[in-house]
Write a structure and sequence with these properties.
mainly alpha; globular
Amino acid sequence: MILYCFSIIFFICWLSGLILLDQMKAVPSSFKDSKAFLPTNNSFEFLVYSLSIGTFSFFILLLSLTHLGFKLSFSAGLLSSLFFSSLIYKVFFLKQDLFTTNSSSDKNFFYLPALLIIFYAGYLILIKSIFYFPSWDHFTYWLVDAKEIFIHDHLRTTAEINNYFNYTSFLPLQFSLLYQLLGSIKEEATGIFSVIYLSLSSMLVLSVNKVQTFKTNFILSLLCILIFSCFWNLSVVSYAEAFTAFCFTLFFRFLINDSPQFDVAKKITFLISLLIGIGFIKGPFKIYSIFLLLFLIVYYAREIKKIKKKSFLYLLIPVLILISQLYYRLYVWREHIEIPLVDERRLLLGTISERLQYILDTFAFLFKNHPVMSVLYLFVILYALMKIKNWKQNSKSSIALISALILFPGINIGYYILEMTSHQSQSLSRYVTPTFFVLGLFFANEFSQKISSWGKKTTIFVTLILSLLIHKEVLRTHHHIKNFDFHDWKASSNKTLEPMSSAALKAATLLPQNARLLFVGDIDTSISNMGFSSLIQRYLLLPNSVGGLYRVPIDKFSDKLFTAKPDFLYLTDFTQDGPTLKFLNLNLSNEHSYLVKIESFSPLKLGAITELN
């Protein structure tokens, strides 16, 4: 049932991509001689392109419509109908060939290597169908927002629901659409989106191959699977990182296509729309959009001067998307929370020697926990140093990919070091994952000619090395799964989640209808509801939860109470001598969760206290 609903979503996405490419005169008349938007060697590659573009464009349009006040179900139905009607019109009334086949004389070996990627994606989907990996970020934002959208059939209309993160509903919108098709909330299904996006990224890498032979595609597909397997911990969770990596790959795949026959204005329009989409995913990702926009301007500096004035009308498309986003933020969501890019308090911590030691520890950690990706990135840097003498002889695409692979991970790791974030594998992974498959594009662009000239011994040796590395990464995957605490999302059958689930269930039976519930705990010296137990139970009781996510000093907590005006406090994740019990003047055991009735606010007067577990 889950895969059936996925196929519906991606069929709609494919239609939208096909129509968009056709409207931009980018559907190839023949794959062999095509000089269209993206030159394709076979129908499979064109399917990947249209699905990639459609996935992005469909949800951008859906998000924009929903921003303007349309119901989600109505918006999705409207767009789907328009795309399908447009396809029917093109096929039957204009007699235009949208499905063409490659010449039988053109020998191509794209399909079998691509099946290797599909097989590995199937392996990850199988893991997802057996295990679910609930994580802290799932219940701070991504799945919380998806559940809220599903319950109310529209985007959130107040910052009260999720006011700790400056994120949009771009990705949760996709999860909620899946929930709508399934008819219920199935959190374990959402991670499959990550697998699909990483599969599409891998296919885009194969498409860059300049020498479409079995050998070159086979080696590149093994490289993609290796990158994919290094990404395993983010491919089985419902975070934005996989989609960001896909957007980066799509951006640079379009950027390095220098077909002179295609209108540069149309290409720039699509790339700018893509940058807006990256900014839509998470507020902090706007920094990516700005850097990539500068990248785009530098790359097309000469061509921009030659663009005809009429062609700039295409830019109305991204402008309309931006107006829609601005309208939503100012008049619907009324956003007022801004998260600083760098925590200034952390910048003041530590002496110079301590900071130098932290930098060394960061790189040591990267090599220890991500050895394969670290070596691949080092190879790019060494390759760039060797090419520096004859830099002018390099192609624009070569310079763009090398620059991206040095610049963007450098910026992200630099940000990580400035923040002095704790050394956690998954946390640090996110700072380099956007360029993972851009790394694949680099190898496909730079070395496909050399791979095609390899002898049998070299090919076998490289295949064995890549296969051994993949095997090692897959074993790491199984090790992580074996040692993961949450093997089953069904809370009643999970020894870790069961106490949280039973406490939330008991609270639900005690709460009056439409009762407002504020979760209270403490982290360090702040009053907060961002402990894992609080997040899980708040998620289960989301229709009653008020106050959003917060972490405030004790002297500011009364302001929070007056703003949220809850009927009950839900105490969990607190410490015996922490600020929560001191503020409330209570003596409770921190091994249990409690439901506390509020009688009045001024002065604060508490009523009945019920132990929940």
